[in-house]
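User: Quick sanity check before I run a bigger batch. Here is a single chain. Can you write out its predicted 3D structure?
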Amino acid sequence: MDPRLSHAHGALAGLALGDALGMPTQEMSPEQIRAVYGRITGLVDGDASQPYAPGMPAGSVTDDTEQALLVASLLIRGRGSSSGRVALNAVEFAHALLAWEDSMIERGSLDLLGPSTKAALERVRAGEDPLTVGGEGTTNGAAMRVTPIGIAVSTEDPEAFAEAVWSSCRVTHATRQGFQSAALVAAAVSMGIDAARSTAPDLRGLLWKAVTYVDSLPERGAWTPDPDVVAATRRAMQLVANPVSSSLEHLIEQVGTSVASAHAIPMAFALLARDPSPRALLDAANIGGDTDTIGAIAGAILGAALGVEVLPADSLSLIEEVSHLGLSSVAGDLLELRDQALVGRQEESPTSASPAADPDADMSPEEPAPASSPTSPAGRVVLMGQILVDLAVRGEALPTPGGDVWAIDEGMHVGGGFNALVAARRMGAEAVSLSPIGEGPYSSLIQAALAREGITDLGPRIAGIDNGFCIAFTDSTGERTFISTKGAETMAPASAWADFARTMNPGDVLYVDGYLMDHPANREAAEAALRVLPEGVRVLLDVSPVIGIPSDLPSDDVIVSMNHREAQEIGQQRGDSSVCDRCREPHEAARAMLGLLGRPVLVRAGAAGAYFVCPDGTAPNASNEDAAHIPTPRVEAIDTNGAGDAHSGVLAASLAHGIPMERALLLANCAGALSTTVVGPASCPTRSQIEAAADALEASTEGK
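Assistant: Done. Predicted structure follows.
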């Protein structure tokens, strides 16, 4: 049996289950739900006080499932469109919705068209063009019925996917919010179908990939003053990633549960990210507001990602008995459409036809996937460190004591660990910041910069103090000097990082900024996190100029990175005279640091490249007697500020992508070198520039 059928069936069954669970509680407050039902733990009858479904029997579905099946029937009947792509005919769809409402009225139902759909279709009844009536729809109606589009259309072809989604929402929800909401749900469902053959589906990862994918699509729909749905969804998922802000009460307060797209879709994604299991559908039924739609959306994504087998069979049987849906057959027909569309694209372009896109491939909206990216799921790059603001000044040279100089250039930038996270994002990796954030102008700058770069901000909040700043002076040779203050970024609560570390997945890369070890609170929090780090999470420790090495640094899946000067200082602090002598040359320093630290060591040597050595001698192109040399491009450096951050961020992202070590080290070297040719701390080049430099360097060194 095609394993996709379980996931396609699961999408429709999950939608129906979430819908039926939320039916008795829709538009009730959490307090009313508790007073009438206690807590919803399964399918129950609608109470007589239920405003839209009084007395409806347990297992009944609402407009969410019925309209989704209406969309499915139109797709199946039309077999796509004249272009060979899957799409709905606007006129046919509008009149089908009107006919559906008429039938609901005849049945005596109170659960009719939602506000946006109702307003648009009343204009169609009055004779207006269906393509001109949906410009004010920002509610969740398009998202609740879009699941069949996600089953029938792959995200492999963004243009075809976007057009299919647009055809399902343009009549009633032809707004930016309407398109975003429908696209988010359809993308998550579609990626779940493509992930059917995965032995270890990652629902949380799939949700983030759907958000990134939709964010990369060209904007569609009319502007409205309502919030951006993609941004709201990202914020909601950031909340649940932090145990402090993940309670249902907090989500209700911060996200919302109304029919607005910017409430319902973020809440559905957040509930699944919080608990990627059928329990999320019970949570949806108990949170109040638009419970049936939030539950239906969450159920569709859950079933698509994990398959119908994960859903309770007894509940599905009751729904089928009461509502007579025939979901398995519908799922099979929609999959046929999906396959027909793929064949059509291959016939249109036989020379460029490619296999279905890997749903786990991490794509950046700015750049194509790197040539060295593997097909395995990408992990995240997580910063355990600190972010502050750089007051960057460039001049000919530092003044002599008591002297005075004029700056050539100046600027204010967010810096510290932020630079490494920006580099990781340039490589297309998902990046997470755990840096503490305070209150004040610098903290506000940091939060805005993280949001601008698409970096997930999960750092603990520190009340009553701003983040610190660093005066960064760069002279005419490109060398830099730092003077830093201490702010909120140095005050991590004792368990803040450990709570997150427990949730990390194999394949994630924890980037540890050695600067944090200079602050007692951060050192304590970091060592607590390292003690509970799950197996399979890689650690990249940049020791930093203050030479910070946690005492609880793991023995496995670790790389300790430093520049040559830092290696020399460690040698002076910890070694005997022979160790100090060996540290004079970078390749010998790498072996000396390996002896001191007992973990893989990377020594960066600027224009001389870098040297990498492992305890077992498995470093690429290295023997037990020597360190592997990684070359670097020849460049004319004008500003070395941030070069080490670019190196570390790209190395972490490459490891998170599963790129082989030899290639990952080369990419990191190229990123560090190219960053010195641009003024500014967060100056990491784009992924394509890094890849091109690495390819050229490899070609130039072949046969040497």
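Residues 283 and 669 are 47 Å apart (CA to CA).

User: Great, the batch can go ahead then.
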